[in-house]
TrEMBL record:
<comment type="pathway">
    <text>Amino-acid biosynthesis; L-methionine biosynthesis via salvage pathway; L-methionine from S-methyl-5-thio-alpha-D-ribose 1-phosphate: step 3/6.</text>
</comment>
<keyword id="KW-0486">Methionine biosynthesis</keyword>
<dbReference type="InterPro" id="IPR023214">
    <property type="entry name" value="HAD_sf"/>
</dbReference>
<keyword id="KW-0479">Metal-binding</keyword>
<comment type="similarity">
    <text>Belongs to the HAD-like hydrolase superfamily. MasA/MtnC family.</text>
</comment>
<keyword id="KW-0460">Magnesium</keyword>
<dbReference type="InterPro" id="IPR023943">
    <property type="entry name" value="Enolase-ppase_E1"/>
</dbReference>
<dbReference type="InterPro" id="IPR036412">
    <property type="entry name" value="HAD-like_sf"/>
</dbReference>
<keyword id="KW-0028">Amino-acid biosynthesis</keyword>
<dbReference type="GO" id="GO:0019509">
    <property type="term" value="P:L-methionine salvage from methylthioadenosine"/>
</dbReference>
<dbReference type="Pfam" id="PF00702">
    <property type="entry name" value="Hydrolase"/>
</dbReference>
<dbReference type="GO" id="GO:0043874">
    <property type="term" value="F:acireductone synthase activity"/>
</dbReference>
<comment type="function">
    <text>Bifunctional enzyme that catalyzes the enolization of 2,3-diketo-5-methylthiopentyl-1-phosphate (DK-MTP-1-P) into the intermediate 2-hydroxy-3-keto-5-methylthiopentenyl-1-phosphate (HK-MTPenyl-1-P), which is then dephosphorylated to form the acireductone 1,2-dihydroxy-3-keto-5-methylthiopentene (DHK-MTPene).</text>
</comment>
<dbReference type="GO" id="GO:0043715">
    <property type="term" value="F:2,3-diketo-5-methylthiopentyl-1-phosphate enolase activity"/>
</dbReference>
<dbReference type="GO" id="GO:0000287">
    <property type="term" value="F:magnesium ion binding"/>
</dbReference>
<dbReference type="GO" id="GO:0043716">
    <property type="term" value="F:2-hydroxy-3-keto-5-methylthiopentenyl-1-phosphate phosphatase activity"/>
</dbReference>
<dbReference type="InterPro" id="IPR006439">
    <property type="entry name" value="HAD-SF_hydro_IA"/>
</dbReference>
Length: 234
């Protein structure tokens, strides 16, 4: 057992941490990409889409929105307006039953055990808050959104900047040291550690993640639970 108290809050990344990279890149991203043109044709006059396109226009002034969004998708840009539009398209896919979220097998049972033990669980992903909620609502085990107390996206700040993690701890009203952040990306963990969070890298064999040398690592959430004194699923 670890000699420090278990974290009060576990903050989790999505892609590569709780959901396979292949699901995000081979299912979600293509789903949004192929429907983007039709979506814009039907929804470009809705207030949230007008706002997202206006934000994009500040990045690439005067460029056609469809071309800009496709180019941003091609380089996997983690920009809030792109993420908002992807989230809106995925919402239609989930509602139609064309999409079901894919979590690693250890994820939902372990989150359930942590939640039952009173650990606060929060998400921090580049995906929009709406998209994050959809993922939990449409799990293969049914609606699991209630496991999660807070959802953070890049509106709170970039994932590779320490200030974002300090802002998340403030928003959760806990000291940074009470939060354990889990991600597959070393640069995100380094930023979180600089803000005073405890961190652990998820090194998922299925994703081919390479363990860094700086932070503790684990192949599954059950191993995270062992290392940090959190509950185990039954
Ligand atoms: C429904 S969540 C989609 C995740 C996403 O859009 C993405 O870019 C992955 O980013 P993460 O910060 O979770 O690695
Ligand atoms: Mg990730």
């Amino acid at each position: 057992m670890p000699d420090t108290a278990p974290p009060a809050v576990v903050l989790l990344d999505i892609e590569g941490t709780i959901a396979p990279i292949s699901f995000v890149h081979e299912v979600l991203f293509p789903y949004a990409r192929t429907r983007l043109g039709g979506f814009l044709a039907r929804h470009a006059d809705e207030p949230d889409i007008v706002a997202a396109l206006a934000e994009l226009d500040q990045i690439t002034p005067g460029a056609p929105p469809l071309e800009t969004l496709l180019a941003l998708m091609d380089r996997d840009a983690k920009l809030a307006p792109l993420k908002h539009i992807q989230g809106r398209i995925w919402a239609q896919g989930f509602a139609a039953g064309a999409l079901t979220s894919d979590f690693y097998p250890d994820v939902l049972p372990t989150l359930q055990a942590w939640h039952a033990a009173g650990t606060t669980i929060a998400i921090y992903s580049s995906g929009s808050e709406q998209a994050q909620r959809l993922l939990f609502r449409h799990s293969i085990a049914g609606d699991r959104e209630s496991l999660i107390s807070a959802f953070f996206d890049t509106r709170i700040g970039p994932k590779r900047e320490a200030a974002s993690y300090a802002a998340i701890a403030r928003s959760l009203a806990v000291p940074p040291g009470a939060v354990l952040f889990l991600s597959d990306v070393e640069a995100e963990l380094t930023a979180a550690a600089a803000a005073g969070l405890a961190v652990c890298q998820l090194v998922r064999p299925a994703d081919g993640t390479i363990a860094g040398t700086t932070h503790p690592h684990a192949a599954e959430l059950t191993s995270v639970a062992r290392q940090f004194g959190l509950s185990q699923p039954e």
